[in-house]
Write a structure and sequence with these properties.
The chain has eleven helices and 15 strands. Strand 14, helix 10 and strand 15 form a beta-alpha-beta unit.
């Protein structure tokens, strides 16, 4: 008989281990041991009518209101929906109406995101928009309370919510660690007993194919609330010495203009090395996946204690810094794919007060991913004006 894990869907023999005559799955054992044939525990989470509404400090645009109606139409017809929205277009605001409708009907709603920092940011934004609700964050370091009116969690934490959500909103589904992870996909499927909303600025090929075939309804929004076009980065190709020269000039000009810069580096070693060099000239800090105090460093950058923040792709998504400009150094490195390049340049021009800015890709050659990134941004800018 074929062994199958009822939590992560694993059927590969190498991931099963026998203990005292009982087989259990090792692929998802970090979530707790689950024996073969055993269902994940189903906790009784609260379902109540919340009679809630959301409050924003600014009105939604006509395009955003149109997208809200389209999302609700598909959900009420019992269909999952893909929301393809440009960076800074207001994806979070687009789903507030469906959150309100589901909660007011006594349904359970979850919002899952790949990264811990974004979980905390979304929880804060949702609590401000829905002050009458108990909005909780469930992620690393915040797992004491796992139930509330609205649950914001990382993808990994969905294992706690077997057959729980009538509506599951999933942000950054094209990003690590969810993308290509069959275990997390299976856990997410089991967490949702109703409809799912997928949010992304960079849908992968599989999602685009499903949308093209009509299997997954798609709602598009490429216009940011301020109406300015997306930033198309300048691409500068040259030898390493020239890239260093252009980098220094770009940073010096921005510091002179009192503008902050996010400097994306391809590796942790490069980020640390260049921080030591650039700290001679500019106040700067560094964030990588190995940085223990990420929140402290980001807060300091928000407070303008640093002019330059060096980082790896760990900050390509979720972070919003008013008036920041972006440089991608060695943009032709294999770690920088089309989606990550779009996300990184999407940090520029997000603020209504400062809707424009500068982006710079430094490389030895213009790769296919760089060309595809430029083409995708130009296409979104062209479509938003139609």
């Amino acid at each position: 008989m074929e062994k199958r894990c009822l939590r992560c869907g694993n059927t590969e023999e190498r991931y099963f281990y026998q203990d005292g005559g009982t087989w259990y799955c090792r692929r998802c054992v970090n979530f707790g041991r689950l024996d073969v044939g055993e269902y994940p525990s189903q906790k009784a989470y609260t379902h109540r009518r919340c009679h809630c509404d959301y409050h924003l400090t600014y009105p939604l645009t006509q395009q955003q209101l149109r997208c809200q109606k389209e999302i609700l139409y598909h959900l009420f017809n019992h269909r999952d929906v893909l929301v393809y929205a440009a960076c800074g277009a207001g994806k979070t605001e687009l789903v507030m109406e469906c959150i309100k409708q589901y909660l007011n009907n006594g349904r359970k709603v979850g919002f899952a995101i790949s990264r811990r920092q974004v979980v905390l940011e979304i929880r804060e934004r949702m609590q401000e928009a829905f002050p009458m609700l108990c909005v909780i964050a469930v992620c690393e370091g915040s797992t004491d309370v796992t139930d509330g009116d609205l649950i914001i969690c990382t993808m990994h934490q969905l294992y706690r919510y077997y057959h729980t959500f009538d509506l599951l909103i999933m942000d950054e589904v094209d990003a690590f660690p969810y993308r290509g992870n069959d275990m997390l996909r299976h856990i997410a499927e089991d967490a949702c007993i109703g409809q799912k909303v997928y949010l992304t600025a960079t849908p992968d090929a599989d999602m685009r194919e499903q949308a093209a075939k009509g299997k997954l309804p798609i709602v598009k929004l490429f216009q940011r609330p301020h109406g300015y076009p997306l930033i198309v980065p300048e691409v500068v190709c040259g030898f390493s010495w020239y890239q260093h020269l252009r980098l220094y000039r770009f940073l010096k000009q921005n510091v002179r203009d009192q503008k902050q810069v996010l400097l994306f580096m391809p590796t942790i070693a490069a980020a640390r090395c260049y921080q030591r060099w650039l700290s001679v000239f500019f106040p700067c800090a560094c964030i990588t996946s190995q940085t223990a105090d990420k929140d402290t460093v980001i807060d300091a950058f928000h407070q303008h204690r640093y002019d330059v923040l060096l980082c790896t792709t760990v900050l390509e998504r979720g972070i919003t810094i008013r008036g920041v400009n972006v440089v991608v150094f060695h943009a032709d490195h294999k770690v920088f794919q089309e989606a990550s390049l779009i996300q990184m340049i999407g940090r520029v021009g997000r603020s209504i007060e400062i809707p424009s800015g500068d982006g710079l890709f430094l490389c030895k050659r213009k790769t296919e991913d760089i060309r595809n990134c430029i083409a995708a941004i130009q296409k979104m800018n062209a479509e938003e004006t139609v």
